[in-house]
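pls read this stuff:
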Amino acid sequence: MERIFHQDLLSEFADISPGLDGDQVRLNRQHLWLSGDLAKRVFNNERQVYTVYYPQRKALLIAPMSNDAFKTIHQCSLVMLKDRNMQGDKSLSLQEIIIDNGLDEEDRPLAFSTIEGLQLLQVILGSDE
């Protein structure tokens, strides 16, 4: 059952065109920066999140720690969302993912997608080139 849910979830994301908005999600000095508005909407002010990177899709999935289904479906890591400023912007280190997967570490806006009502963020860290 979990496997089917996992495949269905990834299929839903595959059907959504990732948005590119440098004010919402960006790579900055090997850290993922999230706008306060997006972080609040997706993570509901939680300070810890689960992350998993899928190299075949070049996609990072991030879910709040309260999402118990996420941790049972994915082999993920628990990381701290760091506060960046008074506007509520958040960041988390991607150094290990970048190094381990040979990803471009140049600062840039990143494509991302969310599914309304589902506390989950998908961030595309590479291109299909």
Observations:
- The two ends are 34 Å apart (CA to CA).
